Amino acid sequence: MTTPLRVPFASILLACCAVASEAADGTAIRAALQPPKARKPAPDFALKDSSGATVKLKAYRGKVVLLNFWATWCRGCKLEIPWFAEFETRYHEKGFAVIGVSLDEGGWKVVKPFLDGAGVPHRMVLGDDAVAKRYAIDSLPDTFLVDRRGKVAAAYRSGMVDRENVEANIGALLSKR
User: Fold this and answer.
1) Cα(60)–Cα(75) distance, rounded to whole angstroms?
2) Pick from 99, 114, 117, 152: most CB atoms within 10 A?
């Protein structure tokens, strides 16, 4: 059974305000791809999707994965999800996948209605304290690009991503075998 993430409300509110102000002033998080030898393994997890199936990150080896930690109350997160859905549709056939990890305390009763209305094509799982701790999540959104070998190639921490930067990094990772 998964345990919901417990982050103090004041921290969550400050993080959301920072993300909303980043989105308003046009700044976004950019990340350079790490050289292959400098990349660390992405922490594995076994989390449940909305159908109850267990999703393991290691099952995605051989694919480039965008791993997005988000919540329904996070404005910046909701702005990014359509971009990630677009990337999933555009690059899926080239070996790309998106996994959304919801950190909503309300669990599926909060997440499912949002997903039903948003038409999200990619896999969504419900995160827990353990996975949040392994990825050092302390504010949202946080996004990671994982290479085909299961290593973190780029980390977009504590804010909305720069859409063009993420897409360029996805392209670069997909071009390498």
Assistant:
1) 28
2) 99
**CA-closest candidate to residue 118, choices 88, 155, 149, 152:** 88
105 Cβ neighbours under 8 A, 6+ residues apart: 4, 5, 6
Question: Taking residues 117-138, what's their average pLDDT?
Answer: 94
Q: Who's near 164: CB < 8 A, 6+ residues apart?
A: none
For the chain, where are the alpha helices, taking DSSP H only?
9-25, 75-91, 108-118, 129-134, 163-174
The average pLDDT across 133-145 equals 96
Q: Which domains does the chain have, with CATH numbers?
A: 9-174 (3.40.30.10)
47, 41 contact by CB (below 8 A): no
Q: What are the CB-based long-range contacts (under 8 Å, 24+) for 168-177? A: 169/31, 169/33, 169/145, 170/64, 170/66, 170/87, 170/91, 170/96, 170/145, 172/33, 173/33, 173/64, 173/145, 173/147, 173/148, 174/64, 174/91, 174/94, 174/95, 174/96, 176/147, 176/148, 177/148
Q: What is the pTM of this model?
A: 0.85
Q: Tell me the per-residue pLDDT of 40-67, one tens digit each, with 9 for 90 and over.
A: 999 999 999 999 999 999 999 999 999 9
